[in-house]
Amino acid sequence: MATANPPGISLDSLLAGADNALRALFAPAQASRVPPRLPDDTPLEAPDRRHVAGLMRVNHAGEICAQALYHGQALLARTPDTRQFLLRAAAEEGDHLAWCEQRLGELGARPSLLNPFWYAGAFALGAAAAAASDRWSLGFLRETERQVEGHLDAHLARLPEGDGRSRRILETMRDEEVRHADAATARGGPELPGVVRALMRASSRVMTSLAYWI
């Protein structure tokens, strides 16, 4: 992969970054694809509805993080090819965000109140990874998506049996996260050091624990 010097950050890039943040945090998410749906959803009892709402709130917060992460990485990407790859992935993650937001609305639930905090932290991490190099940025993306894959598998195991709607959304999201990780690996994204992976898992546990309730 070509190694170029870090790009200068133009005023246009900064304004675009601010616009992305405002849209992710405060504007209704818009999907470019119809959300996955199974035809035989079973109405949920109140305890199951609250539980699914907590899980989907976590997933929505995760997609807020994905928007921030990819746009932070794209801002400091060294090559146009890497930048476009990141922005394409961000667009696909934008569908995930919209699907989770719509499902929260169907459940009569709200997103996490801490979403601005999650966005700021993920954007800083993405920009820091990209500042190192495109290669390490792709490695960070690869590890992030691998951890998200495991997180979605855990949520699928915790969904009520009759909630086909949420299940189909999460299955589609998981399949696309796997594809993002595979694409980052194919582009040369390395496996991160064990201590970095452990720190990422620890920070993810904090986010998921808080976002379920708050």
Account of the 3D structure:
The protein is mainly α. The protein has one domain (43-213): Up-down Bundle (Ferritin), CATH 1.20.1260. Helices cover 74% and strands 0% of the residues. The chain contains 7 helices and no strands. Helix 2 (46-75) runs antiparallel to helix 3 (80-106), helix 2 (46-75) runs parallel beside helix 4 and helix 4 (115-132) packs antiparallel against helix 5 (134-158). The protein is globular, with a radius of gyration of 17 Å. The relative contact order is 0.17. Mean pLDDT is 86; it is low at 1-5.
As a percent range, the share of helical residues equals over 70%
- In the CATH hierarchy, what is the superfamily? Ferritin, core subunit, four-helix bundle
Largest sheet: none
Radius of gyration: 17 Å
Question: Can I get a quick summary?
Answer:
Helix content is 74%, strand content 0%.
Secondary structure elements and pairings:
Blueprint: H1 11-26, H2 46-75, H3 80-106, H4 115-132, H5 134-158, H6 164-186, H7 194-213
Helix pairs in contact: 1-2, 2-3, 2-4, 2-5, 2-7, 3-6, 4-5, 5-6
